[in-house]
Amino acid sequence: MWHFLKTGKKLIYVLAASLGLGLAIVSGHPAQAGGVVGNGTPASCNDTTFSQALAGGGVVTFNCGINPVTIRVTEKVITANTTIDGAGNLITLSGGGTNRVLRTGDNGVRLTLRNLTIADGFTTGEGGGVFSGFRGVLTVSNCTFNNNVSTQGGQFDGGGAIYTKSESTLDISNSRFTNNRASNGGAINNLLSNLKVTDSIFVGNRSTRPAPSGGGGAIYVDGGLNSQGRIVIRRTRMSNNISANEGGGLFVQLYGSDRLIFDQNIIARNTSSGTQGGSGGGIFILGSGAGTTANIQTSTFSSNTASGLGGGIWLGNGLNATLTNNTIANNQAVNPNINGGQGGGVAVVNNARVTINTTTIANNFASSFNGGMIGDAAVTIRNTIIANNRAGNPFGIRNNCSALMTNGGNNIEFPQRTADANDSSCAQGTIVANPLFGAFLNNGGTTRTIALQPASPAVNRGNNATCAATDQRGVARPRGGVCDIGAFEL
Predict the structure, then answer these.
(1) Which residues, including other chains, have CB under 8 Å from residue 11's CB and lie 6 or more apart?
(2) For the segment 29-42, what is each residue's pLDDT rounded down to a tens digit?
(3) Fewest beta carbons less than 10 Å away: which of 208, 263, 374, 405?
(4) Helices (H) and strands (E) in the chain, counts
(5) Residue 336: Cβ-neighbour burial (10 angstroms; 0-12, 13-18, 19+)
(6) How far apart are CA 156 and CA 158, in angstroms?
(7) DSSP-assigned letters across all residues of 167-181
(8) pTM for this predicted structure
(9) CB count, 10 Å around CB of 146?
(10) How far is the C-alpha of 202 from the C-alpha of 181, rounded, in Å?
């Protein structure tokens, strides 16, 4: 239902674009000559000279002196292909807390931002810093977005730093998003568009809309391009972001044959705090049937908190997902309701089908049940460790898992289930043994992992035919003739 609502909303936005406020730079979108802002002094770099340099599109650069300069700008509506390059990272474009900084028209405009800071943008609509229009292409490289705000309170609206309207492309690299705020997607709200985020950092962003909608403390994605889109997030850190509902770091809704690729990321200390939802403290991924896929790999989820289900990860609604070479540790799902606070590490619900391979799920906590994870026969585990998780229920049961999952072979769980008939092992035929973990720290690679001690029963106990070719750090498997169980190859 969301898909059809959003498609309808897209058409309304196209018609409404002509009503937006701001300074239109030029009509049509071919790039022209571009211009230079300033003549070498800070005073020469101002709203007027910025507008003049933008006229006609092209490449806009700055000559404001050798020191950092903040230019207080009114909203600029850009309708020609434009590159704004603040080479040297000396330039801040500020909305002064009263207006959006940049907006592109609904005519397929290409806007590239490089080496800039976009700060203190504000709008009662979407995209406090930048609004990228219908069928636009927005490329962001080596930029900082700080303290931008969207107060649009609609069920799917938001994007404190960036809002991308439908049928568009958003490509972000080597950029930083801090302290941005919106109803959905504290930093980014991506509507029915392709999204690629690489080598970037999201810290202290917040989504503010409470249940029954609202999500994505850092990033909110409502579908890819034409329901065949690709959402790629790679080598990116999301930490200390907060959602008033689902997805403390990331919220993704996939449609049709949309695909999420989530690789080499660090998701830490994010919170989903909704009183009616609050699931997916780290990430929250919704599918819409088996055609929607998510590949989550070589990533670490640690110290995230959910008030509902899935302290680290929530996967649901028919999603087809694989989790390979991940460390999911020290997350928690905490709720005073006896039926709340479940799946401290992972929650797989609502007909999602998930395969977990060479992954370590350890030291997570749920205030009621299923400290390690929620899953059933639709979840297949292979070469995976689920150990030392805890549940806070008074019965001492379901510390690791909620029900029997499908045993794909070579799995360790610890401790053993209790004799209580209401308790459950993680799967039939698992190895029950203390995995003898080492330290959880940077053991090499780009993400933290939990090392294995030499005497660990996980060493040389995997299946070479099904183990991933490398471990989470990129170390080739096997090192001792037979691969090790879990995300770490000793």
Answers:
(1) none
(2) 554 457 999 999 99
(3) 263
(4) 2, 52
(5) exposed
(6) 7
(7) S-EEEEES-EEES-E
(8) 0.93
(9) 19
(10) 12
Distance, CA of 268 to CA of 139 (rounded, Å): 26
| Residues 20, 23, 28, 31, Cα dihedral to 10° | -130
Among the residue ranges 333-342, 436-445, 475-484, the one predicted with the least confidence is 333-342
Q: Which residue has the tokens 């403290």?
A: 281
Amino acid type, 407: N
Question: Per the structure block, which two tokens stand in for 19?
Answer: 């009503």
4 pLDDT band, cuts 50/70/90, is very low
CB contact burial 176-194 (16+ within 10 A = b; e otherwise): bbbbbbbbbbbbbbbbbbb
Please report, as a single letter, which amino acid is at residue 241: N
DSSP state of 4: H
Per-residue burial over 357-393, b = 16 or more CB atoms within 10 Å of its CB, e = otherwise? bbbbbbbbbbbbbbbbbbbeeebbbbbbbbbbbbbbb
Nearest to 133 by CA among 191, 93, 186: 191
Bridge partners (DSSP) listed for residue 150: 123
Q: Is the dihedral of CA 202, 204, 208, 213 positive or negative?
A: positive
Cβ count near 479 (within 10 Å): 14
- Residue with the two structure tokens 């106990």: 461
CA 154-160-166 angle, to 5 degrees, is 65
Number of Cβ within 10 Å of residue 421's Cβ equals 7
Q: Tell me how many degrees the CA angle 221-226-229 measures, rounded to the nearest 5.
A: 55
Give the closest residue to 117 by CA, choosing from 144, 83, 85, 151. 144
Question: What is the distance between the alpha carbons of residues 28 and 57, in angstroms, rounded to a whole number?
Answer: 10
- DSSP annotation string for 233-278: EES-EEES-EESSB-SSEEEE--TT-EEEEES-EEES-EE--SS--
List the 305-306 sheet strands across, edge first. 122-123, 149-150, 181-182, 206-207, 242-243, 271-272, 305-306, 332-333, 365-366, 390-391
Q: Is residue 29 within 8 Å of residue 133, measured between CB atoms?
A: no
pLDDT digits (tens, 9 = 90+) for 331-365: 999 998 877 899 999 999 999 999 999 999 999 99
As beta bridge partners, residue 219 has: 188, 250
For 386, the token pair is: 């689920």
Length, in residues, of the chain? 490
